Amino acid sequence: AQSVTQLDSQVPVFEEAPVELRCNYSSSVSVYLFWYVQYPNQGLQLLLKYLSGSTLVKGINGFEAEFNKSQTSFHLRKPSVHISDTAEYFCAVSKSQGAQKLVFGQGTRLTINP
Amino acid sequence: GAGVSQSPSNKVTEKGKDVELRCDPISGHTALYWYRQRLGQGLEFLIYFQGNSAPDKSGLPSDRFSAERTGESVSTLTIQRTQQEDSAVYLCASSSTPHLYGYTFGSGTRLTVV
């Protein structure tokens, strides 16, 4: 079975500072990896995904993530955050074959301070 | 429709009562998922429907929980004899090809058992 660990439950940063949200996964088979964002009082939106190919993937709103197979990580980064990036961020994994059920991490609450 | 629609958006029920939650997926989406999000926690997988295949019920926490879906249309999640620990936001998501397009989530039903 797959599992996801998001190492930080909360990350406070100042506006325009860089941020990294950490995600590690566990799986005995090859996987697809996703980051979803949940803005206050809204549903989840897909931020970016890794399926295959280049290990650096770019998503919406200036976010990017790097797949590191040896470290089983998929950390999310943004070089300069904005107040509007305040949200809950969820890392998720699914098997690349068979039923593609998503397994989510516990989430990281990103708070941007002015 | 344009998105995944869930109803009701909020439900307060007395302990011991049955509740029924509804999800209208995006037209043409063959895959439909139910997740539960308890306060301050990640998303917990409940059940997965894919076309006419037998559903993956491995995430249902007890036999008080059941879900149905007719074809590729509406799904209902039923919780019998509700308990206070059932209080959570219940999220529905649908997809045509999860690994290509990810899931589209509804805004959820916030269930409060008093």
Provide a descriptive summary of the structure in words.
The complex is a heterodimer of chains A (114) and B (114). Chain A is mostly beta strands and 114 residues long. Chain A is 0% helix and 53% strand. Chain A contains no helices and 12 strands. In chain A, strands 2, 5, 6, 10, 11 and 12 form a 6-stranded mixed beta sheet that branches. In chain A, strands 3-9-8-7 form a 4-stranded antiparallel beta sheet, with no helix packed on it. In chain A, strands 1-4 form a two-stranded antiparallel sheet. Chain B is globular and about 40 Å long. In chain B, strand 6 and strand 7 form a beta hairpin. With 114 residues, chain B is mainly beta. The A-B interface holds A 6, 32, 34, 36, 42-46, 49, 51, 90, 92, 94, 96, 99-107 and B 4, 31, 33, 35, 41-45, 48, 50, 56, 91, 93, 98-103, 105-108.
Offer a concise description of the structure.
The complex is a heterodimer of chains A (114) and B (114). Chain A is an all-beta fold.
Write the layout of secondary structure elements.
The complex is a heterodimer of chains A (114) and B (114).
Chain A: E1 3-5, E2 10-14, E3 19-21, E4 24-26, E5 31-38, E6 44-50, E7 56-58, E8 64-68, E9 73-78, E10 87-95, E11 103-104, E12 108-113
Parallel strand pairs in A: 2-12
Antiparallel strand pairs in A: 1-4, 3-9, 5-6, 5-10, 7-8, 8-9, 10-11, 10-12
Chain B: E1 5-7, E2 10-13, E3 19-24, E4 31-37, E5 43-50, E6 65-69, E7 75-79, E8 88-95, H1 98-101, E9 104-105, E10 109-113
Parallel strand pairs in B: 2-10
Antiparallel strand pairs in B: 1-3, 3-7, 4-5, 4-8, 6-7, 8-9, 8-10
Percentage of residues in helical conformation of chain B? under 10%
SSE string of chain A, helices as H and strands as E:
EEEEEEEEEEEE
Inertia-based shape of chain A: globular
Low-confidence stretches of chain B: none
Strand content of chain A: over 45%
Q: Give the helix tally of chain B.
A: 1
Largest contact between chains: A-B, 24 and 24 residues
What's the assembly state of these chains? Answer: heterodimer
Q: What Rg of chain B is obtained from the alpha carbons, in whole angstroms?
A: 13 Å
Q: Topology as H/E string of chain B?
A: EEEEEEEEHEE
Major sheet details of chain A? 6 strands, mixed
* Structural class estimated from helices and strands of chain B: mainly beta
Biggest β-sheet strands, sense, barrel of chain B:
6 strands, mixed
Q: How many helices of chain A does DSSP assign?
A: 0
Q: What is the typical, i.e. mean, pLDDT of chain A?
A: 92
